[in-house]
Specification:
single chain; mainly alpha; Proton glutamate symport protein
Length: about 450
């Protein structure tokens, strides 16, 4: 009998977790370490995978000009989409008014929420003092900055051995991801059981209108912004939906974008996005393209104002939107980052911080939705940027790779000689370096031919 797909296993885990948390709350909270173990295993993948894929991908760019062009397009796309997200959040919260009638307890305490960093702190934070420290803390933005500079140095010095090492590291990490993802259904079940067991199914009752408004706003954002973008960019929707459903469910059930990153990387490559683009766009998007989070922030800020009885003018709300566009960037590594930004925004507009304490009760439920939309938006961004660069492969057949990274493992075990083919599938696109490299290589003829065969032509 054929085993169910990983997506179905994750969905079953989600349902089982909810049932355990609702029927046996103590058991649900007791098995929470299972979710923590899964998140820890996922976090071990992030740093080496981002580093290896970025180095090989960027070293494969035709020139620094190509990298600069892709970076400009990324930030332009990110800003346009996040502006739409903010606008939709403001529009619906003003139409539905979920905060009207809510009694805001001015005496409520916010608890320990980190101080919002200044603009200068954010800029300084981008550049790591030690990449080892950055990797240990899981600071994706600092890892990206180091990897970009390192990759440019690899390309400039024609360091083919480093390139081969990074390619091998990427292959190993994709196999490693396949092993970890086998544990995903259990991790998801434990996470959902712990959430429902701790807060109960009635967690939605208190602030149901706020939660409902957020879910409606995210649905409108997907239907009115992301879907038209996908259609205009001629992204094959059926292939995209099949590829993104696993990362989406993982992000939704674990409230962790990091947990979905490895699966998202492999899934987007399997539907036709070159690895040199997906390995650049996705990590960058995790800091600068948080569609779900920015929409939530605009909605939550006005909700607190409504609950406090403060009538914000259109001009104040537009200024708030501009403020959020700036403050929502670069703090993804801060614990409870959305609450940090929300608290800073409320202070800037003299709104009571007790509103943050009011939202904390249902923050986990809202975090599930906004995190999964963050992942969905970044996956689409990688497809759109690939299309914009003219490098999206419409002929890529994703059906045989529906298992994502685990498909590599299955293929390698099931077929003779499959290790070679799986390695070929996992090869990151690296454009050939100049002919001087070939003349200067001190390798055997067979090794040179193997290396040349792994570097696709421009």
């Amino acid at each position: 009998m054929k085993a169910p797909s990983l997506t179905l296993q994750i969905f079953i885990g989600l349902v089982v977790g909810v049932a355990i948390g609702a029927l046996f709350p103590q058991v649900g909270t007791a098995i929470q370490p299972g979710a923590t173990i899964f998140i820890h295993l996922i976090k071990t993948i992030i740093a080496p995978l981002v580093f290896a894929t970025l180095v090989v991908g960027i070293a494969g760019m035709e020139s620094a000009h190509s990298l600069g062009r892709l970076s400009f397009k990324c930030f332009l796309y990110f800003e346009v989409v996040t502006t739409f997200a903010l606008a939709i959040g403001l529009l619906l919260v003003n139409l539905i008014k979920p905060g009207v009638g809510v009694q805001l307890d001015a005496a409520a305490t916010v608890g320990e929420i980190a101080k919002q960093p200044s603009v200068s702190d954010l800029i300084v934070h981008i550049f790591p003092t030690s990449v080892i420290d950055s990797m240990a803390r899981g600071d994706v933005l600092q890892i990206v900055v180091f990897s970009i500079i390192f990759a440019l140095a690899v390309s400039a010095t024609k360091a083919t051995m480093i390139l081969e090492l990074c390619q091998s590291l990427a292959d190993v990490m994709f196999k490693y991801t396949g092993y970890v993802m086998k544990f995903a259904p259990i991790g998801v079940a434990c996470a959902m059981a712990a959430t429902v067991g701790e807060h109960g199914l009635g967690v939605l009752a208190k602030l149901a209108q706020l939660v409902g408004t957020l879910y409606l706003a995210l649905f409108v954002f997907i239907a009115c912004v992301l879907l038209p973008i996908a259609i205009v960019a001629k992204i094959p929707l059926s292939k995209f939906v099949r590829a993104v459903k696993e990362p989406f469910f993982i992000a939704f059930s674990t409230t962790s974008s990091e947990a979905a990153l490895p699966k998202a990387l492999t899934a987007m490559e399997h539907i036709g996005v070159p690895k040199k683009i997906v390995s650049f766009v996705l990590p960058l998007g995790y800091t600068f393209n948080l569609d779900g989070t920015t929409l939530y922030l605009s909605l939550a800020s006005v909700f607190v104002a409504q609950a406090a009885g403060v009538n914000l003018t259109i001009e104040q709300q537009v200024l708030m939107m501009l403020t959020l566009m700036l403050t929502s960037k670069g703090v993804a590594a801060v614990p409870r980052a959305s609450l940090v930004i929300l608290a800073g925004t409320l202070s800037s507009f003299n709104l009571p911080l007790a509103g943050v304490a009011l939202i904390l009760g249902v923050d986990t439920i809202m975090d599930m939705a906004r995190t999964s939309v963050n992942v969905l938006g970044n996956c689409l961004a990688s497809c759109v940027l690939a299309r914009w660069e003219g490098e999206f492969d419409d002929n890529k057949d994703d059906t045989k790779h529906s298992g994502g990274a685990s498909a590599h493992a299955h293929t390698a075990e099931a077929e003779p000689g499959a290790e070679h083919s799986a390695g070929t599938q996992a090869q990151l696109p690296v454009h050939p370096v100049s002919s001087e490299i070939k003349s200067g290589q001190h390798q055997s003829t067979e090794r040179s031919l193997d290396l040349e065969a792994s570097l696709p032509h421009c």
